[in-house]
Amino acid sequence: MWLKPEEILLKNAFKLWVTEKDNEYFVLQRRRGYGEGGGGLTGLLVGTLDTVLDSTSKVAPYRILHHTPDSQVYWSIACGVTKEEIFQHWDWLQQNIMRTLSVFDSSEDITSFVQGKIRGLIAEEGKTSLVLEDDPEKFREALLRFEKWFELPPEEKLVTYYSCSYWKGKVPCQGWLYLSTNFLCFYSYLLGAEVKLVISWDEMWRLEKTSNVILTESIHVLAHGEDHYFSMLLHLNETFVIMEQLADYSIKRLFDKEAFQRVPALSDPLQITKRGLEAHAKSEQFRTFFRLPKEENLLEVHESFLWVPFSHFNTLGKICLSENYLCFASQDGSQCHIIIPMREVKSKPDSSSRALTVCVRGKRALRFSEVRDYQRLANTIRSRCGISASPQHSASSEVSRSKCRFTLYSSLLFMLNNTLVFVYLCVQQLKEKMKEQSWNIHFSEYGRGTSMFFTRKTRDLIVRGVPEALRGELWMLFSGAVNDMATHPGYYTELVEQSLGTSTLATDEIERDLHRSLPEHPAFQSDTGISALRRVLTAYAYRNPKIGYCQAMNILTSVLLLYAKEEEAFWLLVAVCERMLPDYFNRRIIGALVDQAVFEDLIRENLPQLVEHMTDLSFFSSVSLSWFLTLFISVLPIESAVNVVDCFFYDGIKAILQLGLAVLDYNMDALISCHDDAEAVTILNKFFDSVTNKDSPLPPTVQQASVGNNDKASHINVDISELIREAYEKYGNIRSEEVGSSRKRNKLYVIQTLEDTTKQNVIRVVSQDVRFNASQLDELYNLFKRQHFLSCYWTMKSPALLHHDPSLAYLEQYQLGFQQFSVLFSLLEPWAFCTTKSTLSLWVFRLIDENQDGLVNFKEFCCALDTLYSGSFTNKLKFLFKLHLPPGRGKVDLQAYLKQWQNEILKKEETIKDLPRINQTQFIQFSKTLYNIFHGDPEEELLYRAVAHVTSLLLRMEEVGRRLQEASSPPESAKPASTTAAEESSTEEASTTPESSDTSSSHNSQDAGPDLSETEWSFSFEQVLASLLNEPAIVSFFERPVDIQAKVGQARVAQLKLKANNSTESQGQVRVFSLEAIN
């Protein structure tokens, strides 16, 4: 590898290098302790020194130096892993450089010329792969060490590397941590003790920062049941953040099947860089904080002051600019932020004296001062502010629309005003008017609509309660749904039209749950409410088939429809499902399980008395699941639950966590005194039934009980506003950043727990049909699953990702296609299958793929291995015999499925008499398969003679049978000749060596075709079995036990090295076609 020329003052520093070749301008050296005469104490010391100092010499012990005769300064220009590699560089210098150097007069010119040539070579090599790295030269050297030490597939992309210590007990091993797209790797070499560690991100259970008595701070990794600790003097936080990002990227790509189409930096796993990960993390944080659409990316950040009119001073903060939004967030503790859509910018910004003035449509001017790169920011805003929304969605119309909102709630109030007595309503509506007045004052000071200032006062008003008339407008604003709807005019109407009349599993589930959604609420006792709910849920299922429809979405959408228009309710649902509660609404509800784990952590931290009494916090996870899935709507009366939803849309999941802690705190004494879980559930249910909303404008006859429990018990009433205020006062110090970090940490554990549950269920089912023990099945499952992921590591378009669906039955979640199966089978097959591995793998795959869908599940794979490892001689031979039978044509019809199901129920075992006969071509191939199985065995010659004897015997038996048959039928002159020719051909085929008989299947079909058409003879399985039983060598070979544990251990080590490439895939397809031609 060519190196960036670096000056070396001493040619033989510390006598660590030995000169192998030299001339007038170059020196080729070998690192002492390597190569011939290497090892010993010198090798140990030099190897340790190279590892600790991160020297390239550890993996590249050869180098070439450049010098001039009249100078003592040497320049390193190349290094090599092997002598062949460094000699290639040496020869290139001799052929291309040496002759040119004689032209120069001065040493400086010679050195400059050599350095220029070397830099040109480096630039040419790194044109594509290293241009995005911060220090390409150092990165090239690190990449060389990474590839040499860990021997991962060449496609694996190194992202970054750090110096660190790996703790084994109380003893640290100083070495280097390498972080790549799919693996965490560590290498250390100290005085002959080599430590090498490779862990894939998708196998991690825990990734967290910890501290203990020995280490003030370290990174803890839990994988394969083992704990690993890494510490470093510098960059620990940076290292942990990169590890967190890589683990999250791997989980989203491999388990969630996210393609990152909107993130070019992450769309190709072969081009992942540290810079790209950091940019993606910042954009995610930016979108989450400002509640922006997923399409937005953080483009620029500028520090500046913003003139705040309501406080009459400049507040320090940062301007964050994306494709369509200009956002500002304060940094001085005032918790002030504002979001300005570019479509709302009325006039182009005026810039003067490092200040910018941005005019917003129909509102006011915002002045940013002390902007460093103000001219660049002004130009960017000018280029983007021409984008505007449709007139019907402009911000100027938002306020007017909010004044004439017609929702299910407003229609309900209209009905009540005409049917109920006003005695109760007058007092409650007076309170509503007072709330509205408070908000109107707030709007006049802080603005209204998309460009409103968000401050502490805004949160205070939210905690006190939102007026019913403003609830829908504020939900749209706080969730960011108002921006989604403004930028997609007419989108919802199109979805409704396209989804109208569709029939899917999602629509069937929606129809089933429509009348279960707030059934006692008057708004959903008529077709108006039910139809609106149906349209919103069906349109969303059509928009996002990955989520489709899940339970709890109907309850949430029902409440949204009470306070928002139908289209607004749709966009609110989009904001909740896709941004605010990610991964909540799917078959495994991973997001809710993750937040339950976060909730448990907060309970341990904030409620120690409860933890002391109830050490097992899993009870709270089971109880709180409905809290998170329905935002307390299913446990609280509706008029109280909407106040919780107010806080949720403003503060996100943090508001739900705070309220959950407040509920447990309020019932602390009762929960501590309870004796079992059932009593604790009763206490919480009674508490939720007692929660009221004293400010609700609805009369008691219409107010709803909680969805989950309608029995009112005698309990002191608790006002929801007081409960929310107490939650903010006691637990308002919980930061959203801490919640996000805890989510990432717990997501690994939740996913791996679900995966482990899947594995245990699969093993339990498979263990009933095989003779492998639980430990062996566990190892086999890990290999099977890893083979699935190996085909996904280096591409975004792997077919295996399409096969993986967590919503399927346990056995069907992980399945292998032929290429994946072929690699894994070659690692675990009990016999050495010579050179026809792919062909035999194809036959085995075809045999065990009973439904012919091109996929094999774990049970089918294990049953095949169980036959080959633990089956009797007869079963093993029957398995090999069936490999050579022609496959079934087409898909299995319904009658065949029913018959197969009936046979499984009756446990009808296939007998040897049920097997069809094999013809001449199939028998010849069967004989060749036996030859290949015996190849490499110590008794190879004896086994070859046994197979030849059996083959010859069977052919003679067939010939005798034919002659007896001919005696009773008219003679045909062509038949004996053909039969004799077939016998000679078969005998010759059987007596050849495996090498000479190893031809392709298609070739055999062409050669044997004429014989097959002229002489139709065949053998039954009983004939083959009876003949082979007479050969003790063959019987003992098949009955010889094979150590499955050793095979699994070898496969675990070699699995990464045998990744299937594209050329193998194309060869496999050719074999498929040729095999089909035979049959």
Explain what this protein looks like in three dimensions.
By secondary structure, this protein is an alpha+beta fold. It has 44 helices and 25 strands. A 7-stranded antiparallel sheet has the order 9-8-7-6-12-11-10. A 7-stranded antiparallel sheet has the order 16-15-14-13-19-18-17, with helices on one face. α28 crosses α29. It is globular and about 110 Å long. The chain starts with a strand and ends with a helix. 39% of the residues are buried. Mean pLDDT is 80; it is low at 388-404, 416-424, 705-714, 972-1014 and 1060-1079. Residues 966-1002 have a biased composition (Low complexity). Keywords: Calcium, Cytoplasm, GTPase activation, Metal-binding, Repeat. InterPro entries: EF-hand-dom_pair (IPR011992), EF_Hand_1_Ca_BS (IPR018247), EF_hand_dom (IPR002048), GRAM (IPR004182), PH-like_dom_sf (IPR011993), Rab-GAP-TBC_dom (IPR000195), Rab-GAP_TBC_sf (IPR035969). Residues 465-652 form the Rab-GAP TBC domain.
Topology at a glance:
Layout lengths: L1 E7 L8 E6 L3 E6 L8 H13 L9 E5 L7 E7 L2 H14 L1 H4 L5 H19 L10 H15 L7 E11 L2 E10 L2 E8 L2 E8 L3 E7 L7 E6 L2 E6 L4 H19 L19 H17 L9 E9 L4 E9 L3 E6 L6 E5 L3 E8 L2 E6 L4 E5 L4 H11 L11 H8 L4 H12 L2 H25 L9 H9 L6 H9 L1 H7 L3 H9 L5 H9 L13 H17 L9 H11 L2 H15 L9 H17 L1 H6 L4 H13 L7 H14 L1 H14 L1 H6 L3 H14 E2 L25 E2 H12 L4 H31 L7 H17 L8 H5 L11 E2 L1 H11 L8 H12 L7 E2 H13 L2 H11 L10 H13 L11 E2 H15 L5 H28 L6 H18 L2 H4 L3 H14 L3 E2 L1 H9 L2 H8 L4 H11 L7 H17 L1
Parallel strand pairs: 20-21
Antiparallel strand pairs: 1-5, 2-3, 3-4, 4-5, 6-7, 6-12, 7-8, 8-9, 10-11, 11-12, 13-14, 13-19, 14-15, 15-16, 17-18, 18-19, 22-23, 24-25
